[in-house]
Design a protein that fits this description.
Blueprint (H helix, E strand, L loop, with lengths): L3 H10 L3 H17 L15 H13 L4 H8 L3 H10 L10 H14 L9 H8 L7 H4 L21
Helix pairs in contact: 3-4, 4-5
GO molecular function: DNA binding
Organism: Methylobacterium aquaticum
Protein name: RNA polymerase subunit sigma-70
Length: 159
């Protein structure tokens, strides 16, 4: 099937200026009617065991998709998937992994969580650059270090 661009090129090749003018007029009309809407962002509710049970009930009793359930209940579609596939959020336990992760995320957003200090091994690795590699072990048979890039390249005429 030909694309619109290919169709336009064929019209140009055959010198069909009237058809090109009609096509351009149709494009301008479409541009005038085009409306750009911002993406729809849904602010999700806090996941609770009751909401998780509602999700499972809707999933089991209706033919609704996960996206439709998410829109109806005002939650993220990923949360609906987690409830259906993995049974998350069904217990009211505040020590459950999903509840702990949620609380950590909220704390990080609010800036309450202190940034973690860097590991000591990472600092010593940065300052320990004065060591030189052993010359016998670091070089291969050609006498090059293993980190040097290969110099052989193919050109178009080589094939």
């Amino acid at each position: 099937m030909a694309t619109l661009k290919e169709f336009e090129e064929a019209l140009r090749e055959n010198g069909m200026q009237m058809a090109l003018a009609i096509l351009e007029r149709l494009r301008e009309r479409d541009r005038a009617n085009r409306v750009v809407k911002p993406g729809r962002r849904i602010v999700g509710k806090k996941m609770t065991p009751e909401l998780a049970r509602q999700i499972l009930e809707l999933h089991g009793s209706t033919e609704m998709t996960q996206q439709e359930i998410a829109f109806k209940l005002g939650v993220n579609q990923g949360r609906v998937n987690e409830v259906i596939k993995r049974g998350k959020w069904l217990s009211g336990d505040q020590a459950a992994p999903e509840a702990v992760a949620r609380d950590k995320g909220k704390a990080r957003i609010q800036g309450a969580e202190v940034k973690r200090p860097r590991k000591a091994a990472a600092k010593t690795g940065a300052t320990g650059g004065a060591k030189s590699p052993k010359s016998g072990a670091a070089k291969d048979k050609a006498g090059k270090s293993p980190k040097s890039p290969a110099t052989a390249q193919l050109a178009f005429g080589d094939l």
